[in-house]
Amino acid sequence: MLDQKIHQPDRYDMGMRRFGRMNWLGLQALAGREVMRFLVVWTQTLAAPLVTAGLFLAVFSLAIGPARGEVLGVPFIQFLAPGILMMTVIQNSFANTSSSIVISKVQGNIVDTLMPPLSPLELVLGYLAGGVARGLVVGVVISLALWVTLGLGVARPMWLLAFLTLGAVLLGAIGIAAGIISNKFDQIAAITNFIVVPLSFLSGTFYSISGLPPVLETISRFNPVFYLIDGARYGMIGASDASPVLGLVVVSSTALAVCLLCWVWLRSGYRLKP
Fold it and tell me: How far, CA to CA in Å, does 223 sit from each of 136, 198, 227, 261?
């Protein structure tokens, strides 16, 4: 009688992760793909935001700049510049992550991202890497343009870098969430037009909230994007409407909460898996 051999499972069964706690190679590949997505079309993703920011500054400067007095102790155009900078950074970070996921859905290749041995945390970090990189590159380009054209330096570089990074993380995470719940481009456009843009415009970008009626000022302080705009202003010109430390706490907490939501949705396959 032939000896019956009891099957012993291999050390690594099919589908078992073989990379330890973090798949650094896979994370690097996903992050690299997300960065290359915006670099190959740099005229749309880097040059266009610079032009848009320049137009905002030019229009406001020509229209009301000469007639407007100082705001927070600085000329109006210098008060306006940090808000335009942060607004452009967060909008580009959101666009990078949200468009990546929706394009994959529309083209039917989202499975190429879901099938590799990448954990939900690695997926969140990989997508965020592209959004943060695009936001920071745009921020650097606009900051250099402001220095060249307006002679506007940076009063507190580390504070500015911290808020720009947190802003890119927060809106990048919101972009991931928006991409997950959206199946078509018009749904992403609706989120952009009715949520992201209003939050950017109504967060003290073009004005100081100290001049608002008390009710509107209180409402503005519940908007995390306000703290991003205000923090960028503190980092660039050294003046702000709110405490920068409070801003860091509010923005960090909000970004962590949104990232956790993205992790939960990616872990469950919400609106991604049939």
Answer: 22, 11, 7, 19
Which residue spans within the chain are E strands per DSSP?
none
198: which 2 tokens?
A: 């209003």
State the DSSP string of 4-53: PPPP---SS-TT---STT--HHHHHHHHHHHHHHHHTTHIIIIIHHHHHH
- What are the structure tokens assigned to 162, written together? 């911290």
**Lowest-confidence range among 18-27, 217-226, 265-274?**
18-27
CA-to-CA distance for 106 and 51, rounded, in angstroms? 29
Q: Crossing angle for the helix pair 157-181 and 244-268, nearest 10 degrees?
A: 30
CA distance 38 to 30: 13
205 pLDDT exceeds 60? yes
Give, rounded to a whole angstrom, the gap between the first and last alpha carbons of the chain: 49
What token pair was written down for 185? 């481009």
Print burial letters for 159-180: b (CB count within 10 Å at least 16), e (below 16): bbebbbbbbbbbbbbbbbbbbb
pLDDT of residue 17: 57
CA angle 250, 134, 83 (to 5 degrees): 50
- Give Dmax (Cα) for the chain: 102
Residues 159 and 227 sit within 8 Å (Cβ to Cβ): no
Instruction: Quote the Cα angle for 188-190-192, to 5°.
Output: 70
pTM: 0.90
The pLDDT confidence band at residue 31, using thresholds 50, 70 and 90, is very high
